[in-house]
Amino acid sequence: MLSLARRPLSAAVPAGNLLGIHLFQCPDAVGIVAKLSECIASRGGNIHSVDVFVPDDAPVFYARSEFTYNPRLWPRDMLRTDFLHLSDCFNAQKSTVRVPDIDPKYKIAVLASKQDHCLFDLLHRWQEGRLPVDIHCVISNHDRPVDNHVMRFLQRHEIPYHYLPTTSGNKREKEILELIEGTDFVVLARYMQVMSESFLKSYGKDIINIHHGLLPSFKGGSPSRQAFNAGVKLIGATSHFVTPELDAGPIIEQMVERVSHRDTLHSFVVKSENLEKQCLAEAIKSYCELRVLPYEVMKTVVF
């Protein structure tokens, strides 16, 4: 992977300019970076960083670029057209351009079950402006009392809450699909239901899940207990894309913490919950900053 002067997304942007992000995937060829640079420079823009990855075993080019530009010299519609032309030139499989300061925030729905820690953490980060999303609604298969801390937060910020109790024979997927229509992606913040293949196809967009274990080990229920019984020395949390197979989607982010023989099952759970919150938030942030690309069938490139 080639990284040219990588800077954080929050790097200073010259007055009057905007920051743009370009994510690109295409068959590998000579001159892609040169054409990208020419495209941006010809409009008076300036590249801040370029991350490139070309795997050894496949002729596929992956790249993420950050650049600054003057919107008066390069209007948003013209910018979109120029990058579409670049995509056509290289037969791109994926090409996305985003200007965070002027493009709409990603609209998301959050699904959760009984436990609140991941959901409430996301709501707090959203309130503080640390997640570049708009929360369209929260959906749960567990009811919450009116005075619950999550419910008070949602009411205060006028975020719709939908309680849809599920059974083994009815997961309310048709109703969920109606509620999440128009969202850009969905987040499962400890939603303890397996989404059907039909549901995933009908939605047709990405769904990000958090698993309270270090995948691919300890899939399914009670991963903390599984890890505790196995005597592991590292526990973790995994954020991944949802696929029809349980806890088997491409991994976006993982976080770990060391444990020892002195830990109890309770301390495993406490440490795991803290990791879950951080891991899910980081995965959402990376996704919104166009850092995530599919790689092969079950992998990701995360710049």
TrEMBL record:
InterPro entries: ACT-like_dom_sf, Formyl_transf_N, Formyl_transf_N_sf, PurU, PurU_ACT. It comes from the Eukaryota. GO terms for biological process: 'de novo' IMP biosynthetic process; one-carbon metabolic process. Transmembrane segments: none annotated. It holds the Pfam family Formyl_trans_N. Signal peptide: none annotated. One of its GO terms (molecular function) is formyltetrahydrofolate deformylase activity. PANTHER family: FORMYLTETRAHYDROFOLATE DEFORMYLASE, FORMYLTETRAHYDROFOLATE DEFORMYLASE 2, MITOCHONDRIAL. This is Formyl transferase N-terminal domain-containing protein. Keywords: Hydrolase, One-carbon metabolism. Residues 107-284 form the Formyl transferase N-terminal domain. NCBIfam families: PRK06027.1. SUPFAM superfamilies: ACT-like (SSF55021), Formyltransferase (SSF53328). It comes from Triticum aestivum (Wheat).
